[in-house]
Design brief:
The protein has one helix and 18 strands. The chain is mainly β.
């Protein structure tokens, strides 16, 4: 899996989007190393009453980026390890994300993204650090975590790649398109009832700028899901109207509204459903403070063979006390509703998580902080596991400190 993802990354960044050699280029290299200790009341959200345990934690995040007047490319790798002092075996999570952007002309922009992630579903991370990014660059949807599998202490591997383009028809009109592929599988022995899947997706859209602050448009997307077990498959189609609006110099809003048509096939037959397709993103960048809201309603294939309706909402907040001292908080809610009732999946699964952290700088390279987090899952058939985690951590940055 890793070799295949790496090969796809090289193809995306060196073949599909070659960097222009004639333009001066800025290169940045940095490595973040974070070490800490934690106590969690249920580290893996085990369904049958997990026990609390203390752990040591280590995270390493190397970053490489290239930027010039027409191009942008970056590669970020992630490795995280938790060693529990009692009750649990060590847990590792690792992966990478890569992106490439190229302005082919004043009208045409190309982009490519590759992501890979391998982690235990329900495993806790090192907590939130840094300020909220009010202008994140979204990568391909990995379909993780699959909240229908929380509590199984199961490793999930996901690799995704996407290629897209934006073309300006005129000063006001833009056409966009993207195709992507996604593979989700289960390792470390796995469970016989978990189903690996492959998903292909395509999106095409049109937007028109009505003013400097307002754009409206429409888009259509489709996904096609095939499971390794030939008795399971599915597809979705989602037309939407879209809007992007700059409410003020500090506040940006974007969203889409439409319908989603879902089909889920199991050995018992095919079930179809229709529902709301929607997404919303809004951020206020106040300089020292950033607040963001996001929400969505769509569909997601699960590891239990269903193409489920997915709903969620989240809020992020950060405040910079000083240049590198940051307080941050986040809360998120997500829900899965099954389309087919013939799988082992609970008809409805709910998951809520919240986290708050404080990070203080001693120098421009050394930081320390603390965080507290809460998670709770609920689904018929596996109870309502919850977890509270307390952390202390020390982080250092090697290389570029910009």
């Amino acid at each position: 899996m890793t070799r295949g993802a790496a090969a796809l990354l090289l193809a995306s960044t060196t073949v599909a989007l070659p960097l222009a050699p004639a333009v001066a280029q800025e290169t940045r290299v940095a490595v973040d190393v974070t070490a800490g200790g934690a106590y969690s009341t249920n580290p893996f959200l085990v369904r049958d009453g997990g026990e609390g345990a203390a752990s040591t934690e280590l995270a390493i995040t190397p970053q490489l980026s290239f930027v010039d007047e027409r191009n942008q490319a970056s590669l970020v790798a992630r490795y995280r390890r938790s060693d529990y002092l009692t009750r649990y075996s060590a847990a590792e999570a690792y992966g990478f994300s890569a992106l490439a952007r190229r302005a082919m002309s004043a009208r045409l922009n190309l982009r490519a993204d590759v992501s890979y992630d391998s982690s235990i579903i329900g495993q806790n991370g090192l907590g939130l650090v840094g300020a909220v990014n009010p202008n994140p660059i979204p990568g391909p949807d990995l379909g993780t975590p699959d909240i229908s599998l929380i509590g199984l202490n199961q490793r999930q591997n996901a690799v995704a790649a996407a290629f897209g383009a934006d073309y300006r028809l005129s000063t006001r009109d833009t056409v966009t398109g993207q195709v992507s592929i996604n593979r989700v599988s289960y390792g470390d022995g796995g469970n016989a009832f978990l189903l690996s899947s492959r998903t292909a997706a395509a999106t095409i859209g049109y937007s028109r700028s009505l003013s400097e602050r307002l754009s409206v448009g429409a888009q259509g997307s489709g996904t096609w899901i095939d499971y390794d077990n030939p008795g399971y498959s599915g597809h979705t189609y989602a037309p939407q109207g879209t809007l992007t609006y700059q409410l003020s110099p500090r506040v940006n809003l974007s969203g889409g509204l439409g319908a989603v048509f879902v089909s889920s096939t199991t050995p018992a037959g095919t079930v179809t459903a229709t529902g709301l397709s929607a997404n919303f993103n809004g951020c206020r960048d106040g300089g020292r403070s950033v607040q963001c809201l996001r929400a969505y309603s769509d569909a997601q294939p699960t590891g239990l063979g269903d193409v489920s309706r997915r709903y969620g909402a989240a809020a992020d907040y950060s405040y910079q006390l000083r240049e590198f001292d940051v307080v941050r908080a986040s809360i998120e809610y997500s829900r899965l509703n099954t389309t087919s009732n013939t799988t082992l999946q609970a008809p409805r699964t709910d998951f809520v998580s919240g986290q708050a952290s404080y990070e203080r700088s001693f120098t421009r390279r050394i930081f320390a902080g603390a965080s507290v987090g809460y998670r709770h899952a609920n689904g018929r058939g596996f109870g309502s596991p919850s977890d509270v985690t307390f952390r202390l951590f020390l982080r250092t940055r090697l290389g570029d400190i910009r």
